[in-house]
Amino acid sequence: MSLDHPKTPNDLSAFWMPFTANRQFKQAPRMLVASQDMHYTSHDGRQILDGTAGLWCCNAGHCRPKIVEAIQKSAAELDYAPAFQMGHPMAFELASRLVDMSPEGFDHVFFTNSGSESVDTALKIALAYHRARGEGSRTRLIGREKGYHGVGFGGISVGGLVNNRRVFGTLLNGTDHLSHTYLPDQNRWAKGQPEHGETLADELERMVALHGADTIAAVIVEPVAGSAGVILPPKGYLEKLRAITKKHGILLIFDEVITGFGRLGAPFAADYFGVMPDMMTTAKGLTSGTVPMGAVFVTGAVHDTFMTGPEHMIELFHGYTYSGSPIACAAGIATQELYREEGLFQRCADIAPYWEEALHSLKGARHVIDIRNLGLIGAIELEPIAGEPTKRAFTAFLKAYEKGILIRTTGDIIAMSPPLIIEKEHIDQLIGTIKDVLDTLD
């Protein structure tokens, strides 16, 4: 095969694609060859409206000049610098900017390369934190059913998506799971946070009674569950979960890989809901998806617990070759500047009501059994085909792509999370096209 880069590769067999029906895809490939602002360009020259911000990550849109130029400049000046016992200025600059925009109390960030790495990092910090405090018996980690926390062994152990767990055998010991907050019979067609389900947080008290508070290190939840199909926290639920964890000395981790950096119209879900966890895991929108990067936000209380002993000793034996890499930091700094200059978080908050009404206009459309939304996130749940789960939504995905829009499906749910630069006419196109697609589905 030539070293040139053709728009359509000659051989698709070498690449084992992630979370993809490989055999189906390679029979009729869907190739993206360029992008700009709200659109991708397909290999056959069509403009594809991005209804998913890539994979929940391109919050500032695609190929924004400010970010592109920052990446180019860094690659030409400092391509790589080690993060172990060495540093470079951009890592410290980005960390300071992130701390400045985070809720009060978050004083430090630990850089990773993805949401999966951020989750595993946060779980390790939680375990090490309790050991450093002399409470090494706190080893249990609690997640939630239907939770998605990446694909590391820690993340799938506390995660609750069955297909992500079932074929990998024994996972981490000492994990448990709260019930999910998906209550369709009580909360169907809710706009924003649903009314029912706050008391589900009380399950944590049951786990404390079962296992003993002195065995539980941390609880990790997505403030808004994305990959499970946009499952929203009932009113009062996160507040109650925070109160229970604080009461028993358990760390609370918010997985903000999706909700972080403006997705709800605020910097973080912690800001939006007014609930302060002990750690936040982030990635995706940190660099608007341009260069892989993640960051774990930790409070000063958590961080300072490690800052004991001789000053020449390493405080935390953890990190990655690419933690805070120069090119990723350059992308992160430019992305945060772009968010601020264009007021994209507020822009999300301003357009969210239009998004909500457009989504809910599909109530009564063919096969639609529920609609959920918050910020610039939306889910359209379809009635499954009897005996063929996921097929109806996947068919909708294929037909939508043919009609020039990119959506995402999880189970029989159409999930959307467009870039924060979306305009009303884009929303109209997305929802109108989905309506047309639904009308054609069996």
UniProtKB/TrEMBL annotation:
Organism: Pararhodobacter aggregans
Molecular function via GO: adenosylmethionine-8-amino-7-oxononanoate transaminase activity; beta-alanine:pyruvate transaminase activity; pyridoxal phosphate binding
Highest taxon of the lineage: Bacteria
Tagged with keyword Transferase: yes
A Pfam family it matches: Aminotran_3
Enzyme Commission identifier(s): 2.6.1.18
Keywords: Aminotransferase, Pyridoxal phosphate, Transferase
Cofactor or coenzyme needed: pyridoxal 5'-phosphate
Signal peptide residues on this chain, from the entry's feature table: none
Any single GO BP term: biotin biosynthetic process
Family annotation (InterPro entries): Aminotrans_3, Aminotrans_3_PPA_site, PyrdxlP-dep_Trfase, PyrdxlP-dep_Trfase_major, PyrdxlP-dep_Trfase_small
Family label: Belongs to the class-III pyridoxal-phosphate-dependent aminotransferase family.
The protein, known as: Aspartate aminotransferase family protein
UniProt keyword Membrane present: no
Name of the top EC class for this enzyme: transferase
